[in-house]
């Protein structure tokens, strides 16, 4: 038996190999039709992309027909180049360049000669197409935006490049792909599956029908519709309020983590990136290194949070047991924390407990709380790590995992960070005291600020912010339904929330109350530093405001940051109150005076000061700058995947440095 085993195994293996070869070469034509066989033409049937709706069912993004002229260089015959170029309104040089590019891609395979013809161009070319062998028309669909807002949320679609094709074999030359926003995140859901048809041709290159009666053909599958958590009316209102201003607005539903509004200012009409003018329009937007409309400030801009950060300072102090809600500290118009070191305060001075400290925004109170928190531990590094751990439990200092492509971590310093700056030791709580009021080395994005307020509204937990609400036929990602619990016990949120409510009753936002809505909020004024010609200079402060409402069973949490907006209650605060009322009351605005001032108000003159070569220090000392702060030059044809890095380098948003640990901070 053993003698027969080996010969038998060899015989069986040989039979299997012969059978497989027979099947592949005689019975199965799938490999044959995928080769460059001139007798078979592959035609793709492109499905419509899925539609995009807002949370209330309003259609935001649909589709419109588009026509691409395709070329197969090897099949081209002699043609009237002048007539051809005249019909398509291109030059002979452009014609030659496009043909050469197609030949480089493949002489035998189709590639896009001219994309995205409109109906009139298509009709003119269709009449003459019989004269131009080697050319044919491929029908596709482009996006048709039903609204003029939300460009940063939607993203756009563009042709794939060679790098994408190499990485994703599904795509062929001329295919479209989603870039940025939900178009990129949910590309595989929205794009559907393209159909493939194999057409047989005779020796005269005429179509004689489907190959093998169409047994290898596949049907196109339309993309799935998606519903966003966005409230488009709130988004429209936010973009209108931010006209002629720079900054971001993020609004979140606390109970779910759904993003209600994501505003970046300035923005642009998403329709600009559709059609044959897309490339030209994109280049113009990209090269605007001053206003940076392609830079999503809500997700990418990292600012010092200013006084809203005092909310976390208080919560950590309560959790660490260094204060309770009755603990008092004296304020002498500031906080003296060392020889010659004084942090100014505008609360008016006097004894401050937790509630008054919050609604008066007392720097001295929170400076003391922070100092006690760090000094509670045997060594400052232990205290700093404990403090940092609490902060990170709120989603700070790392990527949050939301479902939009861009993002920044912000910055929450740890002991290792300060050890690098002070390698011989010597740093302590007073060295880092500016962290207590949201200055120092702390940086947050508007998204993180809004999520912080959603967490406070929930009394200690949050859901990862997300823009998707529903995908037709499937569930959204589980991570968006997972609760994240902070390191702060629930019992400590109540007294802080009471203080935030009194900000509107007795404090820095008492002029921003909305009738019938109990709002809890916090004003902020974040110092604004930038570098001009290598010199660190101070510009007008950023206006910051965070809030949630109603106080009981909150429906919305919001963060607003207006660059160079002076102080919190001047711009960011009114915009927050109006956004909250718009969302909760829908069509009713009870503060038309406030609304008019925000809609008509402009900070253009403030931004022009830097462009024109001037900036202002805190005492309004006018300083002339020799060169404009215009950032680096960019090419006429920038690579889209490099825009984020370039715009980040040019952005006027970095506002603090680590070499000025003991600066005199003024926040309100």
Automatic annotation (TrEMBL):
Its main location: membrane. It is a single-pass membrane protein. GO terms for biological process: cell wall organization; peptidoglycan biosynthetic process; proteolysis; regulation of cell shape. This is Penicillin-binding protein 2, Peptidoglycan glycosyltransferase. It comes from Flavobacterium limnosediminis JC2902. Residues 46-206 form the Penicillin-binding protein dimerisation domain. Residues 247-576 form the Penicillin-binding protein transpeptidase domain. Residues 622-668 are annotated as: Disordered.
